[in-house]
Amino acid sequence: MNQRDIQTKLDVIIDNLDKLNILKDKTFEEFTSDFRNIDSTLHRLQTSIQALLDIGSYIIASLGLKTPNTNAEIIEILNEGGYLPKDKAKTYIKISQFRNRIVHLYNHIDTETLYDVLINELKDIIAFYIDLIKIIENHRS
Questions:
Q1: Res. 106 pLDDT band, cuts 50 70 90
Q2: In CATH terms, is domain 3-138 a member of 1.20.120.580?
Q3: What is the pTM of this model?
Q4: What are the angstrom distances between the C-alpha of 48 and each of 34, 81, 88?
């Protein structure tokens, strides 16, 4: 993955967050009244989280750190290396686990849970994004 690929992933995240913030302004009733809100939220969360994990994996490879075998290991390796704030690792792992739920257990995500993630946990995706940007900026050659 090159710098242009990373920038493309960063752009996807920003675009997704902009659109998720529009959906976040809806009441629960408005949100659930149109299946497109639900589908869009699922897709945009999944692709945002995947882009974050892809960037994390790229950072790990660029820094010559141990190769991760799972998405959670991406976060663990960055955390153990001191690249992520220690107090955020569990939250970021939960984010990666939610992406796994979207991909593999999509039929077990109820609208209340999805709406709760949209309203209350979008800030954690933003924090993960910011932390990855900081790593990239601090290790530019």
A1: low
A2: yes
A3: 0.92
A4: 22, 23, 18
